[in-house]
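Field reference: sequence -> structure
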Amino acid sequence: MIIVMTSGAAEEDIARVIQRLEQDGYGHHISHGVERTVIGAVGAPEAEKEQLADQLSRLPMVERVVPILKPYKLVSREYHPETGVVKVGPAHFGDEKIAVIAGPCAVESEEQVLEAAQVVKAAGAVALRGGAYKPRTSPYSFQGLGEEGLDLLAKARELTGLPVVSEVMAPRQIEGMIDRVDALQVGARNMHNYDLLREVGQTGMPILLKRGFAATVQEWLRAAEYVAASGNLDIIMCERGVRTFETETRFTFDLAGMAAAKQETYLPIIADPSHTTGDYRLVGPMALAAVAAGADGLMIEVHPHPDQALSDGPQSLTPASFKRLMDQVRTVAAAVGREMA
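Structure field:
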């Protein structure tokens, strides 16, 4: 449930509500809006909610208490009607501007990642993506450089000033990533890894949560709730396509699902047209479609030499094609009343 404070509520009024929740053994999250503060009560059993709501409504400066019926309570628009903003270093996601994350699928060498970082920044990207640990379908495929890759990402950040987004695959990797990257990505294969979701939630770092390729929108939102329930509301959702009967593309880009998710959650949602299509020729059209459909940003794979890439070369854009795409994204963003970050 959520407790909506009156516009004139002071800090001691808010503290009184929190003290009452803690006294009864419930958790809480605070959201400070422009006019009102909203407190989310976590852990109240269904049988106790009605009585608790009646009691809390009698506290001074409480305007109303609203039960949340959604299974994803902390990430729902019932809890926070306005789209939230998540900061990844100096980059902002969810503030009505289109923010683009770009870079290679996997960190392969110092030369490769530093060149990629410089070209994507020059074209207008606000964050660098790069995999130090790579989940691959085949155990014999390139799996990333691990710790060395993290060091190279940190070096690219120092060179360009771009914040870094990189995928974490297991809880044991988190400690080594905290100082080297700015946001932890939970990939599609780990969306249902609830232990990992809890662990990344406890870091306090921004989390980029990709939709599982066999997950419904509801399951995707419930996965985000695991992170939020662990104390972290800095979550960026990423639509990257789902598996269907269609084989012409790598996955099916579910823009309708993305739009539906935006109605359900206040978390910013970006789109990954690279993984969904698996074909560099389709990345541009799908990126533009995502922006037109309301995506808060894009995540695009860019490699200095895609024909030499050790991972996902067929879907990676060259620096020149990425620059052209960014110009097109600016045009589409302007057409729907938005602009680039």
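Note: Residues 86-340 form a domain with the TIM Barrel fold (CATH 3.20.20.70).
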